[in-house]
Design goal:
Blueprint: H1 3-40, H2 50-57, H3 60-72, E1 77-78, E2 92-94, E3 114-116, E4 124-126, E5 130-132, H4 143-156, E6 160-161, H5 169-174, E7 178-182, H6 191-194, E8 199-203, E9 214-216, H7 223-228, E10 236-238, H8 246-256, E11 262-267, H9 272-281, E12 286-290, E13 299-300, H10 301-304, H11 311-324, E14 332-336, H12 342-351, E15 355-358, H13 360-366, H14 397-422, E16 435-437, H15 440-446, H16 463-486
Parallel strand pairs: 5-15, 6-7, 7-8, 8-11, 11-12, 12-14, 14-15
Antiparallel strand pairs: 1-13, 2-16, 3-4, 9-10
Helix pairs in contact: 4-14, 12-14
Length: 502
């Protein structure tokens, strides 16, 4: 046989083999389909179709948590926060500027700056109202993630935050503006560390963990953190109660660093108005409300999934209360938990926040382009969450910082675009009157017009403006009373406190 004849025979054999394979696959598929059709009609208790009913009644996440409890006999924990029962920010939409007011042209500059702690001697000034959420080294994320966050924050004109972990020198070295989170643990309270901060935030609790105490065993900690500990074989603890009273803590911070704002971070609770009153009485400059959607590296599911108020609800309530008390200009309000991007950030600003802290989206942004090195052996978060051993060689800091900086740049452009579409020249001009509710429940909850209502504002939509007007008159009356008493024209007011009576 010639070479061509051999080739033709080989091709014929391959063709027959391929045809046989196709026939076999067709027969196999028909048999499998027939088997599944029979299974669909069988008793689900004895059929794989039972899984469909189980997953309808129990979410995959709950199946995993149940397996954790069964296997370990301990409190089940999970990372990355909790999905809210209602995503309230998705129930809100913007009312676009059309004829009056008109939108701004794309070339028009929009002011994105913000000052946190306006009554402090040296307020924290940021180029945009977006902050990286505090993530502690060792107890939350890796040192590489901390450095990437600090570098991106500096390039983007915002501030890096220490989180509740120990002091990381290289983070402070890279951060142009740095927020020290004074935690309930036994570290980072030294006077020299406090003096390095551009703002100090006292951590009373957080949305994913309420205000419970936390213990992390040595096997969960990075080697560097274990070696730095005085007791490397014992768990590190973040206590439930602060090491001192709030007033004493604030005084100690002012002694070490008198010019910077002092803030407090706490979980959003149903009694938040009482919390606000006590914080203002203590002289706090910045209040961070951490909503139920907030994430952490690893939190008890029974706390993370079932405690606290949604961030949007908490911010709206806090803003209304501060305005009603005539105290809105005394304190800055930071929203934390569940903000995914510029749309969520802008809505929280409109509801009353001065700035918004973002966490999970930044972790996703910094790991962009590197996830393939750990998946499928581990989840994407393994690149950034602290552990004794990081798979895939760990996070590449340069790439992570670059992608974070691009995320901040894109978010700033999107915030500017929202302001232009609303016809306002500054992000500080965002307010509830520019929002419409996509559901009647959201309209009642936030006091804004329902998109499905006839033209004209319902009574609830006037609540924000009337409250602000009443607070302004009250403030003016306090000023006039003070002038009158100074001139001897009015007797001293009876009752009331530092902020007036009533």
């Amino acid at each position: 046989m010639t070479l061509w004849q051999v080739a033709l025979v080989d091709l014929g054999v391959l063709a027959l083999a391929g045809l046989g394979l196709l026939v076999a696959l067709q027969v196999g598929w028909q048999r499998a389909r027939a088997r599944w059709e029979q299974e669909l009609g069988a008793d689900p208790r004895q059929s794989p179709t039972e899984l469909l009913f189980s997953l309808r009644a129990t979410t995959p996440a709950e199946v995993v948590l149940t397996a954790l409890r069964a296997a370990q006999g301990r409190v089940a924990e999970h990372p990355m926060g909790s999905a809210p029962l209602v995503q309230w920010l998705d129930h809100l939409a913007w009312d676009p500027a059309t004829i009056s007011p008109p939108p701004l042209p794309r070339r028009r500059v929009v002011d994105t700056r913000v000052r946190l702690g306006p009554r402090a001697a040296r307020p924290l000034e940021l180029a945009l109202p977006v902050l990286p959420a505090p993530m502690g080294y060792g107890v939350g994320v890796t040192d590489a993630a901390k450095v990437a966050l600090a570098q991106a924050a500096t390039v983007s004109g915002t501030a890096a935050a220490s989180g509740e972990g120990p002091y990381l020198p290289e983070e402070r070295a890279w951060a142009h503006r740095w927020i020290l989170q004074a935690s309930r643990a036994g570290w980072a309270h030294q006077r020299a560390v406090v003096a390095l901060a551009d703002m100090v935030e006292i951590q009373i609790g957080q949305g994913a963990e309420a205000a419970i105490g936390i213990a992390k065993g040595p096997r969960h900690l990075p080697r560097r953190l274990r070696h730095a500990s005085d007791h490397p074989r014992t768990p590190i603890r973040i206590h439930a109660r602060p090491p001192r009273s709030l007033a004493a803590w604030i005084r100690a911070i002012h002694r070490a660093n008198p010019a910077v704002p002092v803030g407090v971070k706490l979980p959003a609770s149903a009694h938040l108005e009482a919390d606000l009153a006590r914080l203002l009485e203590a002289g706090v400059d910045v209040i961070t409300l951490d909503g139920a959607e907030a994430a952490s590296a690893n939190s008890p599911a029974v706390i993370s999934d079932h405690f606290g108020l949604p961030t949007a609800v908490a911010v709206a309530r806090a803003h209304r209360w501060l305005v009603a008390q005539g105290l809105r200009d005394r304190v800055s309000l930071v929203a934390s938990g569940g903000a995914r991007g510029a749309a969520d950030i802008a809505k929280l600003l409109a509801l009353g926040a001065d700035a918004v802290a973002v966490g999970t989206s930044l972790l996703l942004a910094m790991s962009h382009g590197q996830v393939h090195r750990v998946v499928p052996a581990a989840g994407p978060a393994a690149l950034v969450l602290a552990a004794p051993r990081i798979p895939g060689g760990g996070l590449k800091v340069g790439d992570a910082a670059e992608h974070l900086a691009r995320w901040f740049a894109a978010t700033r452009e999107e915030l500017v675009l929202i302001a232009q579409a609303l016809g306002v020249p500054s992000l500080r001009a965002l307010n509830p009157s520019q929002l419409v509710a996509r559901s009647e429940e959201a309209a009642r909850l936030f006091g804004i017009p329902y998109a499905g209502a006839p033209p004209g504002r319902p009574p609830a939509a006037w609540a924000h403006n009337l409250t602000a007007l009443a607070a302004g008159y009250r403030r003016l009356e306090q000023i006039l009373d003070g002038i009158g008493r100074g001139l001897g024209l009015r007797p001293p007011a009876k009752g009331g406190g530092e902020y007036g009576g009533g």
